[in-house]
UniProtKB/TrEMBL annotation:
Entries under CDD domains matching the protein: PurM-like1
Domain PurM-like C-terminal: 153-302
Alphabetized InterPro entries for the sequence: HypE (IPR011854), PurM-like_C_dom (IPR010918), PurM-like_C_sf (IPR036676), PurM-like_N (IPR016188), PurM-like_N_sf (IPR036921)
Organism per entry: Clostridium chromiireducens
Start and end residues of each PurM-like N-terminal domain: 33-138
GO biological processes: protein maturation
Gene that encodes it: hypE_1
Pfam families assigned: AIRS, AIRS_C
Family: Belongs to the HypE family.
Gene3D superfamilies: PurM-like C-terminal domain (3.90.650.10), PurM-like, N-terminal domain (3.30.1330.10)
Highest taxon listed in the record's lineage: Bacteria
UniProt name for this protein: Hydrogenase isoenzymes formation protein HypE
Amino acid sequence: MKEGKLDFDDLRRIILNNKSVRRDEIVVRNDVGEDCSIIDFGNYEGIFSTDPITGANENVGKLAVHINCNDIASSGGEPIGILVTILAPVNSTLQEINKVMNEIDEEAAKINVEIIGGHTEVTSAVNKMVISVTVIGKNLKGKSVKTAGAKLGDDIIVTKTLALEGTYILINDYEEKLKKILSAEEIELGKSLINKLSVLEEGKIGGEFGVNSMHDITEGGLLGGLFEVAMASNTGFKISKDRIPILDVTRKICEEFQIDPLRLISSGSMLITSENGEELVKQLKDKGIEASIIGKICDRDGILIDNGNEIKVEPPKRDELFNIRVEK
């Protein structure tokens, strides 16, 4: 099999074929596109999510904290605690494991999240360090936002710029190669993007605003995220390529590697659908968060408008990060 997330249809079949128990307390169950599961705990809802870091080599501790806590943000909730599993290859050192845990502790402290448990082991089952984090969050009962909540006619909004995480990873992993096309300033800009990967603030704003749907854009990039929202909500989407915010440094990197920035891992950007996108964008910008309306939720299909042409978008098979095959 190829690296990356499973094909959407394959994943959905696996999920649907393995649901033997359905408890009344479960408000939101696992499904394609849903960032979190939500459990009714009386006056509060517990929000749960888990993800590994597999595509990056640098600052994996920082990435592990933010990509998981971002899932809680996509539900409009507050992350409280994380459980960390570290699988280290046999050639690891204690110093390397301690460095990763220090990164996790530092980033968690910045957003007031406690490390509450986990597991660490050295194993020949992996050839590089794998970090998996489970995050626990909370929200008031009935206030959580689902991926599956998008409605016909909703504005589609994205925050910041696309492919922030992908740009950061590629600059760190292929810096020497990219020095041929990027200036020193552009390389430093790309490395600094790790400080823009949290979407907790936009998640809070979106939850308070009353948006219909939120989704953290991760593997598969913008188009992957849109397909997940549309599949979960039984809708389609129509977006305009010229409205999609992408940094010049990201465009240059994607051209060099011949990959599509719209299909590149994009933690740091929140995908939101709302009946009143203009007002939401204004509120986000008032809080210092850039946001753009890029299209509308429609009844079926995924359409990308490029230079006036309507192109039907095929579901992404895997993230572009896994399509790069060059010597570092």
